[in-house]
Amino acid sequence: MENEALIDEPLKNELSAHYRAEGRHYHSLAHIEAMLVLAGHYRASLHDPEAVETAIWFHDAIYDSRAKDNEARSAALAEKKLAGRIDAQRLGRITAMISATATHELPQFGDENAVRDAALFLDMDLAILGAPPDAFDAYEQAVRREYGWVEEPMWRAGRSAVLKSFLARAHIFHTEEFRQRFEAQARENMARSLEALGA
């Protein structure tokens, strides 16, 4: 396997255990697998596909809906587990991609190939927003279950704010490919969800 050096079977098993933890309804192995499928589809467009796959495996490894630093902690885990396996520059790109999932803003890389990879990676993470309505609704319900401890009025206000911030962006997706494929549906899904939250 060509990406053996970055993510080997023992590491996959270790990370899979994180994704199988109790309370994960959306941020589970299924989400990672869906992103890996997308990475496969767009592999020819990726400059460093192994780095992107590695970022996918690690990006939600730490996930606690009550915490505000999941992305930073997931990036730190990648740093710890990959130290010595790859050069520092490549590791830096991977951890920057993971950290960027906190805001979904592009990391500031000097290298346009790295920026392009990060853009595709972030778009893969948000592809669910542009899924067919029933899949999107199932995603929304799964996220709601992950935040089961939040009372309904707080949930409605918080989730509405998140959806509004995405809808206010000039583009939800960073790449032309994902905009063409998912942008219109994503806006439709989120507008519908917002309406339901306000009902």
Verbal overview:
The chain has one domain: Orthogonal Bundle (Hypothetical protein af1432), CATH 1.10.3210. It contains nine helices and no strands. α2 runs antiparallel to α3, α4 packs antiparallel against α5 and α8 runs antiparallel to α9. The mean pLDDT is 95. It is globular and about 50 Å long. The protein starts with 8 loop residues before the first helix and ends with a helix. Helix content is 64%, strand content 0%. The chain is mostly helical.
**CATH-derived architecture:** Orthogonal Bundle
CATH class: Mainly Alpha
* Low-confidence sequence ranges: none
What structural class do the secondary elements suggest?
mainly alpha
Counting structural domains, the number is 1
Q: Which whole number gives the mean pLDDT? A: 95
| Total of helices | 9
The total strand number stands at 0
Query: Helical percent range?
Result: 55-70%
Order of helices and strands: HHHHHHHHH
Quaternary class = single chain
Alpha-carbon Rg, integer: 17 Å
The CATH topology, please?
A: Hypothetical protein af1432
The major pleated sheet works out as:
none
- Globular, elongated, flat, extended or rod-shaped: what is the shape? globular
- What is the first-to-last residue Cα distance? 51 Å
Percentage of residues in strands? under 5%
